[in-house]
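Session log. Operator J.P. requested a structure for one protein chain; no other inputs attached. Running the standard single-chain path with token output.
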Amino acid sequence: MAHTQQLTNEMTECIQNCLDCYSVCVETAFHCLTLGGQHADPRHITLLNTCARICETSAMFMLSGSEFHKRVCGVCAEVCQACEEDCSRMADGDETMERCAEACGACAESCRRMSAG
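Structure written below.
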């Protein structure tokens, strides 16, 4: 596949951050539903699921060499930042929530760089 030769180190890192964030958000949504209370608020669960989906989509756009990956990464950065803030707000020593906030933050940052480049 010729397009893989065009993957820069920065893009490869962004793809990995997106895939990591995807899996962490899916795991965190289940964790939050188990916890209940504010963690199971529909807006929070929807944000986690939305974040997971846009991360998966961003990775796919980059892996497939889509000319639209920069725009998708821009949206991904926005959603990840919102999810990072939401998870940080609810973390309070919860390792799963902290891990989610970290993954979202890393993905937001790398997607911001991708969308600007």
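Operator note: Residues 9-116 form a domain with the Substrate Binding Domain Of Dnak; Chain:A; Domain 2 fold (CATH 1.20.1270.360).
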